[in-house]
Amino acid sequence: GAGVSQSPSNKVTEKGKDVELRCDPISGHTALYWYRQSLGQGLEFLIYFQGNSAPDKSGLPSDRFSAERTGGSVSTLTIQRTQQEDSAVYLCASSPTTASPSGANVLTFGAGSRLTVL
Amino acid sequence: QKEVEQDPGPLSVPEGAIVSLNCTYSNSAFQYFMWYRQYSRKGPELLMYTYSSGNKEDGRFTAQVDKSSKYISLFIRDSQPSDSATYLCAMSAFRAGNMLTFGGGTRLMVKP
Question: A76 or B8: which carries more pLDDT confidence?
């Protein structure tokens, strides 16, 4: 697609429920990233994929969080047994590769999925 | 203490003013520096990118990096109401896009 597409744009759930957030990256982008942005906070790195593999899961806050990517394209971030502290905007980004000969890799972000846990 | 510090603002300026946005950092390994602009309810978009120390200019925007002081700046000349947004600095030690370290963002309001 023309940009990074995320769904749902807004999700309100009850504490203890599971949620799935979807990211559709730019076509042809091999690298995909998930970040979390809490109110008034900077972006917190969660996980990144190179193709379907996730070499770096260091940012996942707990084992309630998991992510997968299939076909080198769409990715799903799943949060199990949601807690109120999970409320945040979950941002997905993609890039052509994890490294560029000319310098740092440029990430294109989606508009985010705003999660509210009641 | 956070690796990257950024004043959250809000910073309110009149239209036409010169705006200075800044970040300090503690990791001397950082060598790639970026500024992202984020409008309300939108994802961040890359505004400026610099490598190592020095200045880079793009239209009304100038990015400066001072690695000796671990201090980066973004200047906006002739600020416009459309510049009203949150500005996030980001930096990395490597070319790879993962593990960018972001500042908390500065909210800028340019009043007509």
Answer: A76
